Amino acid sequence: MKFVKLRSRGGDYLVVAANVAYLRMDENGQTKVGLVGGDSLLVVGDMQEVAAQILNG
Length: 57
Fold this sequence. Notes:
single chain; 57 residues; alpha+beta; three-stranded antiparallel beta sheet; two-stranded antiparallel sheet; 5 strands; 18% helix; globular; RCK C-terminal domain-containing protein
């Protein structure tokens, strides 16, 4: 299981990379990360930055 650290303005998340279902651009330069079987997370960075974090781990 590969965990990825994603930064948020309210705190950081450790997310299982295989559980990421989608990325969606949100306001103020943030990205919503949708999770399989769960809710979405609002994280810092645009979609390209977040995608690179997930792929590079």
